[in-house]
Design goal:
It is built from 5 helices and no strands. It is mostly helical. It starts with a helix and ends with a helix. About 0% of the residues are buried.
Length: about 100
Amino acid sequence: DFDKIAIADIDKTKERTQSFLKQIKDFCTYPMLLGETILLMFLWFVAGMSYFGFNFGWGSIFPDLYIGYLMAGLGEIIAYNGLTPLIAKLGRRRSIMLMFLGAAV
């Protein structure tokens, strides 16, 4: 039984390797795709670092640490509940652009 599992995993590894090489080839074929990918990677990196920076820095922003975390939690609840109708109305791409613009301001 274990031999069949190992053979099935080898086949999946080959498929993943071929898919990865095809994706690298697509980056070379379509330079616009590479530029957009690098830009999105940078934007999500900055968004993640900002999020963690705010979460670990509430002690320096608010005098009381618990009030800071309470405000952060309320802000996230408002953002999550407001984002769902915004995505339904504007679509995923436009709402992400709007959120990034709002975070930049």
